[in-house]
Known about the structure:
Blueprint: E1 4-8, H1 14-26, E2 29-32, H2 52-58, E3 78-84, H3 92-100, E4 107-113, H4 122-127, E5 134-140, H5 146-155
Parallel strand pairs: 1-2, 1-3, 3-4, 4-5
Helix pairs in contact: 1-5
Amino acid sequence: xxxxxxxxxSASGTTKKVAQMIAEEAKADLFEIEPKIPYTKADLDWMNxxxxxxxxxxxxxxxxxxxxxxxxxSSYDEILLGFPIWWYVAPTIINTFLEAYDFSGKKIVLFAxxxxxxxxxxxxxxxxxxxxxxITEGRLLNCGTKQxxxxxxxxx
Length: 156
């Protein structure tokens, strides 16, 4: 039986709820990717080109700092990695997370919440941050119903 980790970033709490249900269903450990400076409502205003999230997402090399946490990634075979979709891809804080730990030989399955867009080029944009891992597009879990999550976890 492989050991699983559900790692997630959630700016508003939506992805966190989904991640908690996935961790419970998959009997996996839970790890929250937390920014050093939390995002405010104004930071997340995608209509404002000067908002923090807009500025970060306009520069794909930008890496928001995350809280450093001790976690032994070597004890996990599979990582279920969740985040909200920002500008049709994962937020760059996910790249920060992937570059902060060693994911060599790991299977990383993505899940996301979104207001309407899909994964876009997320896998391609994340692969360079964890080049020795296998990253696969998982599922958009916008509704995050228990049944939807149960079915998805069983399919993994």
